[in-house]
Amino acid sequence: MSSSIFSFALSVFFLSSFTLSLNSIITDKNALISLKNSITSNPYAILSTNWSQNTSVCNWIGVSCGLKHHRVIALNLSGYDLAGTVSPHLGNLTFLRYLDISYNRFTRILPFELSKLRRLKVMNVGANSFTGEIPTWLGSLPQLEELYLHNNIFLGNIPEEIGNLSQLEVLSIPDSSLIGNIPSSVFNISSLKFMDLYNNSLSGNIPSDMCDSLPNIEVLRLWTNQLSGEIPPNIWKCTHLQDLELSVNHFNGKIPSEIGNSSMLRKLYLGVNDFRGKIPEQIGNLSQLEVLSIPTASLTGNIPSSLFNISSLKYVYLFNNSLSGNIPSNICDGLPYIEVLHISANQLYGEIPPNIWKCTHLQDLELSVNHFNGKIPSEIGSLSMLRELYLGFNDFRGMIPKEIGNLSQLEILSIPASSLTGNIPSSVFNISSLKFIDLSNNSLSDIWNTKHLDTLYLFNNNLSGTISPTIGNSSMLRVLYLGDNHFTGIYT
Ligand SMILES: *[C@@H]1O[C@H](CO)[C@@H](O)[C@H](O)[C@H]1NC(C)=O
Ligand SMILES: *[C@@H]1O[C@H](CO)[C@@H](O)[C@H](O)[C@H]1NC(C)=O
Ligand SMILES: *[C@@H]1O[C@H](CO)[C@@H](O)[C@H](O)[C@H]1NC(C)=O
Ligand SMILES: *[C@@H]1O[C@H](CO)[C@@H](O)[C@H](O)[C@H]1NC(C)=O
Ligand SMILES: *[C@@H]1O[C@H](CO)[C@@H](O)[C@H](O)[C@H]1NC(C)=O
Ligand SMILES: *[C@@H]1O[C@H](CO)[C@@H](O)[C@H](O)[C@H]1NC(C)=O
Ligand SMILES: *[C@@H]1O[C@H](CO)[C@@H](O)[C@H](O)[C@H]1NC(C)=O
Ligand SMILES: *[C@@H]1O[C@H](CO)[C@@H](O)[C@H](O)[C@H]1NC(C)=O
Ligand SMILES: *[C@@H]1O[C@H](CO)[C@@H](O)[C@H](O)[C@H]1NC(C)=O
Ligand SMILES: *[C@@H]1O[C@H](CO)[C@@H](O)[C@H](O)[C@H]1NC(C)=O
Ligand SMILES: *[C@@H]1O[C@H](CO)[C@@H](O)[C@H](O)[C@H]1NC(C)=O
Ligand SMILES: *[C@@H]1O[C@H](CO)[C@@H](O)[C@H](O)[C@H]1NC(C)=O
């Protein structure tokens, strides 16, 4: 008796759960059909051919169903170039965990009904044309871990309600037109690992106790905004920070020495801000650092010698500051992997160390507009990866070393206004990759063939005699300035 009641109850349970799931997948299907109907352009005809009424929605392209409830758990229509609006009925996909409609041409607002997607973990609506303000209801998606809203036409502020997303790990809203402060509630999401608000018009400060409430942050990308105030000295408490990008803002004050304790940092971008003072010596403690970029930031003082000791460094951009001091003679022992050294437009002096040849990965060496002196070391010719060499507006003396002709990857050779004398080595003109030469405003006295060149500036030298007939053979040459020399004739 009891067993038949039990089996009756069981079969009712199965039946009802079957019809429930049947009803529910019909709900999901209706929701997807509503979406399909709100799409006005479907260039690859994906939805019209594939989203066929006769087949299960679980076989539709971009749709994934869960095994347990047999409901739609993921909708990924990224990059199908779909145009139209997002149907509010999409909010009926209540089992949805992943929604990715990025890289399409959806317009209008994100419908309020999407706030019913309470199981959503990932929402990516980036690279569309959604308008209006960023919806406050996003703050009511309790499971949300990743939110991507980039490259839309969202206006106004970042809503404070985003701070309610206590599981959020990724907040990505670059390339929008957001204004106002970053709400303090956002700096309070302790789960956050990745915050990208690059290229907006956000203003205000970074809270000084930020790292107390963002202990897990790995990437903080805030460059190209209107942010101001100081970099919080407690930045070192963000012990997982790998990538700090604050360039092109109005940050001021000193770069805190405590930054040297952010031992996981790999990328540090602080340029184009209103700092004062020196580069802190403690920066040399960043033993994982690969990119150090602080151009145009009113920095003074020497480049700390500890910086030339960070063996992980690959890219150094410190141009357009007021840095002084010289390049240590053993620079390449400390920076064996350096690829870009761009320290133009400072007040640096001394010689280019001959041991520069040991920086075997160097591709871009920019030392222009400083007070470097001495000879250009012939050892530069051993930098076989070098593509760009800018040494102009310095106080060199002597000749261009003929070994420069060994730089078989060189594309740009720029040494104007640097007191150079003698011939331009013929080997230079044999570098087939070379596109651009600027040796103007020196005291050079001879010139050779220019077969591969795009641009040649040699004005204001002591070049004389006849211009090489091969100039006429330079099919690539677009720009040629030879004025203020002493030529006596030109072959045609
Ligand atoms: C979505 O759900 C709402 C509310 O339950 C309902 O009124 C609407 O008809 C549903 N939409 C579809 C397409 O089933
Ligand atoms: C729709 O696309 C999926 C995935 O490519 C495929 O498995 C399915 O057979 C297609 N259905 C129809 C009706 O074309
Ligand atoms: C869907 O069903 C209709 C009518 O039952 C049929 O004409 C059509 O060929 C079917 N389409 C597919 C893709 O099975
Ligand atoms: C959606 O598909 C694209 C392309 O296959 C993929 O890169 C992206 O990670 C997917 N989105 C989600 C949320 O899984
Ligand atoms: C968000 O959190 C605030 C308190 O910070 C609360 O008042 C509000 O109800 C929450 N909003 C949502 C949409 O959950
Ligand atoms: C910044 O974002 C705007 C859209 O708001 C975009 O048009 C522009 O190309 C972006 N600029 C950069 C440098 O990425
Ligand atoms: C930050 O979080 C703490 C604890 O969760 C809470 O007490 C505080 O009100 C929050 N502050 C802001 C500005 O949201
Ligand atoms: C930073 O690191 C140095 C050296 O490891 C240590 O002496 C100092 O106490 C640290 N500073 C802070 C604020 O933790
Ligand atoms: C950090 O840098 C300071 C100054 O350069 C130095 O005295 C200290 O030993 C460094 N600490 C560590 C752990 O490298
Ligand atoms: C160099 O810095 C000055 C301010 O110090 C700025 O006005 C100028 O635009 C910068 N030049 C370049 C090329 O970045
Ligand atoms: C550079 O590193 C070496 C070895 O790690 C160390 O002995 C030296 O003191 C460091 N120099 C500077 C200026 O930090
Ligand atoms: C470098 O150039 C010099 C002079 O032009 C030449 O003698 C030497 O063999 C070259 N070295 C290499 C490695 O090509």
From TrEMBL:
One of its GO terms (cellular component) is membrane. Residues 1-21 form the signal peptide. Keywords: Glycoprotein, Leucine-rich repeat, Membrane, Repeat, Signal, Transmembrane, Transmembrane helix. One of its GO terms (biological process) is defense response. PROSITE patterns: LRR. Residues 70-172 form the Disease resistance R13L4/SHOC-2-like LRR domain. The keyword Transmembrane applies. Residues 27-65 form the Leucine-rich repeat-containing N-terminal plant-type domain. It holds the Pfam family LRR_1. It is a single-pass type I membrane protein. It is found in: Membrane. The keyword NADP does not apply. Belongs to the RLP family. This is LRR receptor-like serine/threonine-protein kinase FLS2.
